[in-house]
Predict the 3D structure of the following.
Amino acid sequence: MENDENLAEELKSQGVHVTSFEQLINWGRSSSLWPLQFGLACCAIEMISATMAKYDMARFGAEVFRPSPRQADLMLIAGTVTKKMAPQVVRLYNQMAEPKYVIAMGACAISGGPFKEGYNVLKGIDRYIPVDVFIPGCPPRPEALLEGLMTLQDIIKKEKLLGKDRARHADPKGYAELPVPEYGAHDLEPKCNPDVWSPPTVEKGGEGQ
Ligand code: SF4
């Protein structure tokens, strides 16, 4: 593989560009992300700002916000996810076609943020859907969103479409639809989806505690 890369570099210096089908597909996908158009709270204002002339998200091919999940491949969770809203977010995710990606923008989407202890706020949307990029901040500035978008582009460009390390969407055994939580007697049920969320185990009583 190293020799192949050297050969590709040498050919490039002579004006000959070679690529693979996989690189071509990943380049196309990473350069034309279509976000789903919805915002959940104040972070959405920064998201909207990122699409305006000053920050110009169009430079990254990602300015075409779609009003329907069936036409979008990027879910931008921008704002507070209440427990009442969480089932709708999962339902919208299920309605998006593969390959699809998720960016969690802001402290609320990542962990509940300032409302973490609130009875009505979810402590992170990654409990129910797989998140590709987390952008911390309250709110993150538009530049941070652009940085997150470029990070996602890098992830997509490295995706494998074949073999055992292939991307989730290229794996026929990958999940097709995620279970939608319901609001039970006291909380969302189930409290998380163990297929997408596995928190680290915290052991109490260790050294330094
Ligand atoms: S992280 Fe801060 S700015 Fe963003 S939705 Fe939550 S409270 Fe609002």
About this structure: The pocket of iron/sulfur cluster is lined by residues 41-43, 79-80, 106-108, 113-114, 138-139 (CB under 6 Å).
